[in-house]
Amino acid sequence: MRKCFSTCARQLSHENPLVSLVSSHFHSNTHYRLVAPKHHPGPVLNPPNPRNANKYSKGLPRKGAPPTLPRMQRGLPQKRKLRNVAHTIAVSSAKGGVGKSTLAVNLALSFSRHGLRTGILDTDIFGPSVPTLLGLSDVSEPKLTGQNMLVPLTSYGLRSMSMGYLLPNEAAPVAWRGLMVMKALQQLLHEVDWSPGLDVLVLDMPPGTGDVQLTIGQQVELDGAVIVSTPQDIALKDAVKGVGMFRKMNIDVLGMVQNMSVFVCPNCQTETKIFAHSHDDVGGLGGAEAKATDLGVDFLGDVPLDPNICADADRGMPTVVAEEASGKNVNSQYYERIAEKVAQKIGLGWA
Ligand SMILES: Nc1ncnc2c1ncn2[C@@H]1O[C@H](COP(=O)(O)OP(=O)(O)OP(=O)(O)O)[C@@H](O)[C@H]1O
Ligand SMILES: [Mg+2]
Q: Which CDD domains would you find in this protein's record (predicted)?
């Protein structure tokens, strides 16, 4: 039975407008969505009703009932494979806005187009982009399984999960402190039902080198990380930090991608390097390629700056799908090449 969440939300909202990510009273086929009461602009926490303490004990932490740290975080962190996932890669960069999410989604779609069972997990709790990129910002109502696992949403044959699916609307800010974020991250990492199984899961990472990155690095057996940078020095400096962070956590850096490497004029086909970088003269290498060489990291490829990539992302039809639909192969070739290299590096066949 498809049970509209609004009933449950009414029941819960007076005590917790945020509502559990995974609440034990929801059963399989039950859809749900975080619903804030009208007077709340977004997820703002109210004290829980103590009478329901057990009933809703599995959800996101509520004010007044501080979340306990998961057991594994008290002792030495233990890395483990995500359930039903054969390979996991992270798409990361310490720098914000360099195109991590766009690359992550297009890589995932490239994997999927080559016959790999693929999922994407948006680990950006504050600024989830995957719902927009996959055209799922309005239709998102994840169900729960009988075991209270979130059922991923599917778009273009790609399974996905994101904090964005759990918010009442796109504009709702997530104004949380660290423990709340960690609790949500735990649930996104360990309480999503990827059965019958994925060959590869792509993690779209938030910017920075903070809690989320460290938790993922400490808890998840990653096959490796792809570091994204734009060519200019200021972005490369942060990309270097990203590489350093993964190395410190003994996670393989699969390589670097240079996004927005060059702008090709659609009228005259002239190539312009919009973002200047001090490595321009070094053997003709782009900034990220030269930096990758410096760091002893493989260079996985360039993606040009093309307004169509941005437009495709904004309309919820990523370039790999958009070009497939229009029979073009202008930019998808760049994503495909990078995806092929990554697949080979993590031991996946490429059909
Ligand atoms: N190669 C490209 N050409 C043109 N636009 C691009 C390209 N790559 C990404 N963009 C655009 O740049 C913007 C930022 O991209 P995106 O959201 O993927 O970055 P991000 O690194 O994930 O950001 P954040 O750090 O906020 O998570 C988006 O508008 C996206 O459409
Ligand atoms: Mg992003």
A: Mrp_NBP35
pLDDT of residue 41: 40
Q: Flag whether 310 is in a domain.
A: yes
In a domain, 228, yes or no: yes
- Tell me if 216 is assigned to some domain: yes
Who wins on pLDDT, 342 or 45? 342
Atom of ligand 1 nearest to the CA of 104: 18
Q: Is the pLDDT of residue 20 over 50?
A: no
8 A C-beta contact, residue 61 and residue 180: yes
Phi and psi angles of residue 255, each rounded to the nearest 5 degrees, phi first:
155, 180
Residue 300 near residue 226 (C-beta atoms within 8 A): yes
For the CA of 312, the closest atom of ligand 1 is 31
Least confident of 47-51, 178-182, 245-249: 47-51
Domain harbouring 295, CATH code: 3.40.50.300
Q: What angle do CA 235, 240, 246 make, to 5 degrees?
A: 130
Residue numbers of the domain that contains 89: 85-117+197-345
* pLDDT, tens digit, 9 for 90 and up, residues 218-270: 999 999 999 999 998 888 999 999 999 999 999 999 999 999 988 988 888 88
Please state the domain count of the chain.
1
Residues touching ligand 1 (Cβ under 6 Å) are: 96-102, 124, 127, 129, 206-207, 259-260, 303, 305-306, 309-310, 313
Residue 100 Cα to ligand 1 middle (Å): 6
Q: 225 in a domain, yes or no? A: yes
